């Protein structure tokens, strides 16, 4: 068993809004959130006051403890206020991908039993359609303004009393992001107030931040990585978060230069751009002191090229998953120069790990031996919403979460993730379940059978690669038709990016697709 070198942390027995904004009065007029496109700024005092007024308005509207509110928005400076207002009113927040199709959105609304939606006007058509399909939605609110919908801006004027909800941090759900876990279709991950807040405390000794630090939030808040690293963690410590709604390289670089960003939390595609794109040379990025990459594996050579170009310490990595609130490993900021190339870091405080044999899961492996990574700690999710069997498959009776990732630990405690047991595809950090795409492919009348695996393109990104068996009558079916067919039915990040036609999908006697054989095809 491997244990963290850091001292254990006590569970944080606070609602997430108090765990994050408990020092807002101390930080006062310091900027908490800055819109990276137009410069609009919210101070800590304003963020604290605004989220309390919104909580009062939501409670006055009928939001009650146990309700689920769907937050459907790109990154904006309103997102944190909406999130903390909902939790202060007693609701759980299920975060929704802004690019989800109405059908995908409706599935999440139904599964989570959401009663409220908070969105932005450009996404209203999708939200309305999803609400129609799902049923049970009481009201759609907007962060900005739109005819026929109440705006959070107007709700700030509420004179209703601030709600004081009796929350149990250990049991009550703060966030309900959706994850495919190690396999299968998306499931609601129940993360309690205590689990999320404690994970922030666990990360703090390794990743320190505070007033004067400026963090650029370009990765989405709806994703647990962004929610933790770019929203909760910096706001808890008095740093300034500069918010961008999406990644556009020129806008991203300009924001670093204009706002004198000190720290970046990114995914590998952004590291690639920083390492290779000619536009980088046109901007002053000298304010940066570190870059941390997570959400997908980062090639060591690429990481080195990026740090050398930016004249920075080596790029650090972090590791975790939604079901772990999400963090378990990170390269500490004071160890960036010491960390071996390619490591995803060391165990954070209060976390234990085992590496077990792929052939014999009861056999623990030692230093340098590769096996499945198991994690135990206070950050492990409460479970999958309404899916006790899936929860039991992931978390064993001794409390160990089986990550589905394969890795090894060196003699100094650095973890290296080398492969995945699980079949999940990570396209630019977003989870894509092969089973979901296979189900879509099989609805095409010209497709007899199909299988999907992850394959790496020339940029080093993992992409969905479909292997398709044509129906005997569909000789004319081509790659473009298949990719377009799927693209019309799924969110953009789930699109099929490559198609290979084969005579038969290799399967085991049980019917399970033999994906390894597909990967070995020429």
UniProtKB/TrEMBL annotation:
InterPro entries: AMP-bd_C, AMP-bd_C_sf, AMP-binding_CS, AMP-dep_synth/lig_dom, ANL_N_sf. PROSITE patterns: AMP_BINDING (PS00455). Residues 436-512 form the AMP-binding enzyme C-terminal domain. Residues 23-385 form the AMP-dependent synthetase/ligase domain. The keyword ATP-binding applies. Keywords: ATP-binding, Ligase, Nucleotide-binding. One of its GO terms (molecular function) is ATP binding. Belongs to the ATP-dependent AMP-binding enzyme family. This is AMP-dependent synthetase.
């Amino acid at each position: 068993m491997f244990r963290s070198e850091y001292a254990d942390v006590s569970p944080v027995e606070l609602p997430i809004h108090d765990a994050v904004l408990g020092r807002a009065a101390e930080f006062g007029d310091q900027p908490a959130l800055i819109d990276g496109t137009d410069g609009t700024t919210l101070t800590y005092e304003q963020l604290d006051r605004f989220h309390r007024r919104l909580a009062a308005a939501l409670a006055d509207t009928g939001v009650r403890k146990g309700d689920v509110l769907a937050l459907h928005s790109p990154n904006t400076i309103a997102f944190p206020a909406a999130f903390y207002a909902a939790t202060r009113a007693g609701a759980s927040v299920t975060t929704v991908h802004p690019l989800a199709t109405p059908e995908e959105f409706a599935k999440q609304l139904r599964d989570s039993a959401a009663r409220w939606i908070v969105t932005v006007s450009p996404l209203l058509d999708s939200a309305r359609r999803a609400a129609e399909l799902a049923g049970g939605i009481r009201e759609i609110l907007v962060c900005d303004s739109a005819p026929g919908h109440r705006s959070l801006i107007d709700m700030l004027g509420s004179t209703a009393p601030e709600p004081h909800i009796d929350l149990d941090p250990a049991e009550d759900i703060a966030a309900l992001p959706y994850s495919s876990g190690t396999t299968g279709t998306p499931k609601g991950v129940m993360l309690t107030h205590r689990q999320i807040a404690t994970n922030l405390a666990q990360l703090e000794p390794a990743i320190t931040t505070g007033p004067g630090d400026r963090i650029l939030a370009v990765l989405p808040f709806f994703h647990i990585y962004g929610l933790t690293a770019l929203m909760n963690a910096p706001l808890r410590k008095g740093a300034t978060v500069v918010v961008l709604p999406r990644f556009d390289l020129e806008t991203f670089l300009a924001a670093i230069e204009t706002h004198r960003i000190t720290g970046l939390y990114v995914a590998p595609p952004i590291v690639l751009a920083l390492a290779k794109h000619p536009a980088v040379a046109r901007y002053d990025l000298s304010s940066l002191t570190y870059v941390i990459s997570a959400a997908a594996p980062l090639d060591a050579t690429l990481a080195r090229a990026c740090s050398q170009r930016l004249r920075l310490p080596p790029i650090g990595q972090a590791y975790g998953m939604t079901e772990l609130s999400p963090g378990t490993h990170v390269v500490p900021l004071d160890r960036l120069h010491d960390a071996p190339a390619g490591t995803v870091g060391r165990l954070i405080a209060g976390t234990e790990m085992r590496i077990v044999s792929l052939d014999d899961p009861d056999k623990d492996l030692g230093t340098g031996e590769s096996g499945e990574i198991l994690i135990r700690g206070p950050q492990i999710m409460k479970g999958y919403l309404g899916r006790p069997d899936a929860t039991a498959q992931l978390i064993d009776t001794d409390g160990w979460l089986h990550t589905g990732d394969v890795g090894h630990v060196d003699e100094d405690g650095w973890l290296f993730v080398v492969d995945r047991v699980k079949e999940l595809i990570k396209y630019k950090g977003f989870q894509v379940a092969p089973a979901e795409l296979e189900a879509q492919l099989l609805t095409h009348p010209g497709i007899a059978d199909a299988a999907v695996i992850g394959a790496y393109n020339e940029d080093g990104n993992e992409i969905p690669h479909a292997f398709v068996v044509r129906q005997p009558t569909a000789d004319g079916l081509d790659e473009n038709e298949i990719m377009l067919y799927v693209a019309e039915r799924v969110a953009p990040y789930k699109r099929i990016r490559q198609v290979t036609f084969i005579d038969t999908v290799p399967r085991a006697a049980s019917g399970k697709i033999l994906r390894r054989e597909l990967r070995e095809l020429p």
